[in-house]
């Protein structure tokens, strides 16, 4: 009896594992490859300290750095709007992008980097 419960547990575990693999089926979204770090060391530091936490994970809902398709409609709004959203916060974007040391020029450079421009 104990032996058949052990086998049942193994079978159940395999079913769970195989089912979980099905959840990673393609969603129709293109795979986004993270862009190389910014060449400007100061910009790379700001990106790593502030932007990366949200813009390098598809689970946050933020547009991924390097996903030009996701950034295109945002960039179409104009840089002034995007900087305003960054400074004041917008949807899940915290005010100042959680970067208290960033200037408006830094925000512009970070947005351009993440948008692939």
Distance between the termini: 65 Å
The radius of gyration over CA amounts to 21 Å
* Apparent shape: globular
Q: Report the CATH topology name of the domain at 41-115.
A: Cytochrome Bc1 Complex, Chain D, domain 2
Please work out how many helical segments DSSP would assign: 5
The fraction of residues assigned to DSSP E strands is under 5%
Under the CATH scheme, which architecture of the domain at 41-115 would be assigned?
Orthogonal Bundle
Structural class: mainly alpha
Low-confidence stretches: 1-5, 7-28
According to DSSP, the number of beta strands is: 0
- For the residues shown, what is the average pLDDT? 79
SSE pattern, N- to C-terminal: HHHHH
The biggest sheet, with number of strands, parallel, antiparallel or mixed sense and barrel status, is: none
Helix-residue proportion: 55-70%
């Amino acid at each position: 009896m104990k032996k058949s419960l052990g086998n049942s547990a193994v079978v159940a575990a395999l079913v769970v594992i195989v089912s979980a693999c099905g959840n990673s089926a393609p969603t129709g979204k293109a795979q986004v490859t993270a862009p190389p770090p910014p060449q400007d060391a100061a910009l790379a530091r700001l990106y790593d300290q502030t932007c990366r936490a949200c813009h390098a994970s598809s689970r946050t809902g933020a547009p991924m750095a390097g996903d030009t398709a996701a950034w295109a409609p945002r960039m179409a709004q104009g840089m002034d709007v995007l900087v305003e959203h960054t400074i004041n916060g917008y949807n899940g974007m915290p005010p100042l992008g959680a970067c208290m040391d960033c200037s408006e020029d830094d925000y512009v450079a970070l947005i351009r980097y993440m948008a692939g421009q």
